[in-house]
Amino acid sequence: MLDPAVAIAISALMSLMLTPLLGSLLRSRMPGVSDWFASNLMMVVALPLILLRGRIPDAVSVVVANELMALSAVIYYVGCARFLQRPVRWSVLIAGLVALGAALVYWRYVVDSIPQRVLVTVLFSAALCMAVAVLVVRHRPPARAAYPYWATATMALVLGVCQLVRGVYFTTLTGTTNTLLFATAGSVALLAIGGAIMPMLSMAAMMMVHDALLTDARAAADRDFLTGALSRKGFEAAVQRLSAGAVSSGVPLSLLIVDLDHFKAINDTFGHAGGDAVLREFVRRVESQLRRGDVLGRMGGEEFAILLPEAGTDDALRFAERLSRSVTLQPVDTGSGPRRYSFSGGIAAWQPGDTFDLLNMRADAALYEAKYSGRNRICVYQGRTEESAFASVPP
Asked: How far apart are CA 142 and CA 119, in angstroms?
């Protein structure tokens, strides 16, 4: 049979080994990571204090050690709340810690009862395990993979139930209140599970952080760093997704490609910082006009593409006209003075059997016609090859 001291030592070693792994994530500056690191570190300190019982005062090996383990669980919960951007109810958590400390003192120095001390500590840790499970399930970020969060919740729930079983088990023990109560087979098994709570939850936390970092990395790859619009890669992925829905449902889909007029002159006059200000302001104005489901991407330089699901060419044209009026009426503060600007646009509608390249080619042809016709206008590709292939709408 495994000695209780060995079970505790193994748990302490697991926490110690996980501490540098959690520490390596501190550079991510992700909310909650520093709390999880501190929580794990507290367990590294608390578990050896329990092992020293009989060699150091019970005030340290019983009261302080168990209170430190409870604080570790509290800080872990706080880390989860911060990671999920939820408020932390410090008043409730602190009140729980104070109540637990008072109970530990009472059941050691007023009435010396190991079963009662175990009961109050496991009830506290079980409650926090349940709270963690509820928190990560209710507030899982919808854009992230579900597995790390459900795994964390399941692990916390199982550990919480095991703690409750341990508490109930200790209330059935009779006899002299001494450390021999920890030496039974059932006690050692439940003690090992209880000691594994923090290492296992720490591993679950690392899974959530890893998933968040991967999600953020993918999002960064799909976004233009200057304007926040989708990159060409991200935009093409959105086109593939939305075009598949348009084909299956038979709803229209239009693509608007715009190019800011005389953008080189803006850069030459106001510098690249002024040009960047114009690009950012243009994206801001487009986003203020977009409907739910519309997609904006920066295709390169001063060229942007706007995908308009459930919009025919007439709807897309009205959208482009509204956007053009909004852009031309309000000058941009470039930092070196105000600057008015305009754009040219080309519109094409999705057709059965289209690929993004074909749709983009037709919209680009309409854009070229708008620029060739004098700029600051919108042209619509009408699907023919003769000169009347474009309908031009001047400003």
From this structure: 37
Predicted structure pTM score: 0.68
- Cβ proximity of 321 and 261 under 8 Å: no
Closest CA to 130 of 162, 99, 98: 162
d(CA 246, CA 265): 39
Task: Determine the residue type at 69.
Answer: M
Are 305 and 256 contacting, i.e. CB atoms less than 8 angstroms apart? yes
Alpha helices in the chain (DSSP H): 4-24, 33-51, 58, 65-83, 90-105, 114-138, 147-171, 185-195, 197-221, 232-249, 263-289, 313-329, 356-372
Backbone φ and ψ for 144, nearest 5 degrees, come out as: -105, 165
Cβ count within 10 A of residue 138: 11
Q: Which residues contact 13 (CB under 8 A, 6 or more apart)?
A: none
Spatial neighbors of 256 by CB under 8 A, at least 6 apart, are 305, 306, 307, 308, 316, 319, 320, 345, 346, 347, 363
Question: Whole-angstrom Cα distance, residue 176 to residue 110?
Answer: 16
Per-residue pLDDT tens for 345-394? 999 998 877 788 888 899 999 999 999 888 999 999 986 543 445 555 55
Question: 305 falls in which pLDDT band (50, 70, 90)?
Answer: very high
Provide the b/e sequence for 301-330 (b: ≥16 CB within 10 Å): ebbbbbbbbbbebebbbebbeebbeebeee
Of 76, 75, 51, nearest to 62 (Cα)?
51
